[in-house]
């Protein structure tokens, strides 16, 4: 059973990257956290308990790795705010541009959420985990998951309403 765990971890990489990106707000930091989590997990495969969810175990390692990195940065006095500017140069077409702009707005709004709300939102709304699974990963009661998710959704809605601006009026049709 332990022999096929590395392959199962590889299959989880896209989900782990999404979760790590949601925590860090940066693709580079997210990838670094996933790599550190994979190294930690592969070095401690004997600690995984058969019959438990591997994805929950990996998400927990990612979250712990991120918390460790934040603490380390505070001690060293490093800047914790990654540069989130993404270029839209080279893209063609109105729909693609609008979709990218909307995605950028959503990402920025999610980044403004408190860390605890952002984690729950990504686990449940993006990754499709149940409240119970998110509760287990985050090591909080299920009611806390529900209330954080409700607050995250409400705040995300407010943030999206605040940033809704018509930049270019559409031409009148006749």
Task: Give an overview in words.
The chain is mostly helical. The protein has 2 domains: 1-78, Rna Polymerase Sigma Factor, Chain: A (Orthogonal Bundle); 93-164, Winged helix-like DNA-binding domain superfamily/Winged helix DNA-binding domain (Arc Repressor Mutant, subunit A, Orthogonal Bundle). It contains 7 helices and no strands. Helix 1 packs across helix 3 and helix 1 crosses helix 5 (115-126). The longest helix is centred in the middle third of the chain and has 23 residues, at 54-76. It is globular. The N and C termini lie far apart (68 Å).
List keywords for this structure.
single chain; 174 residues; Rna Polymerase Sigma Factor, Chain: A; Arc Repressor Mutant, subunit A; 2 domains; 7 helices; 69% helix
Offer a concise description of the structure.
By secondary structure, the protein is mostly helical. It has helices spanning 5-24, 27-43, 54-76, 94-112, 115-126, 131-138, 142-162.
CATH class of the largest domain: Mainly Alpha
Number of domains: 2
Tell me which CATH architecture of the largest domain applies here: Orthogonal Bundle
Report, as a whole number of angstroms, the end-to-end distance. 68 Å
The SSE order reads HHHHHHH
By helix and strand content, what is the structural category? Answer: mainly alpha
CATH topology of the largest domain: Rna Polymerase Sigma Factor, Chain: A
